[in-house]
Amino acid sequence: xxxxxxxxxxxxxxxxxxxxxxxxxxxxxxxxxxxxxxxxxxxxxxxxxxxxxxxxxxxxxxxxxxxxxxxxxxxxxxxxxxxxxxxxxxxxxxxxxxxxxxxxx
Length: 105
Prior knowledge:
mainly alpha; two-stranded antiparallel ribbon; elongated
């Protein structure tokens, strides 16, 4: 049985670039959603491996060979880099004040 060390998974260059862009986006205060990771991951994959991508002639959708941008891949990426998506906070308090003003007037 082999000892399990730090795993970078499949396509480590993609993941390193994606993590770097994530850190930069957080640094400038950008709100990050799960869809952000998938969109940037696909763009980086296209940049790194253009020969592995084909486009369907009927639907014009891209098909990525040798890689699946699945939910389990995304969860593994987040776990590997210790990323937790943040929730918006103090939304209800602001909305309540606006709502209270509308009711009183």
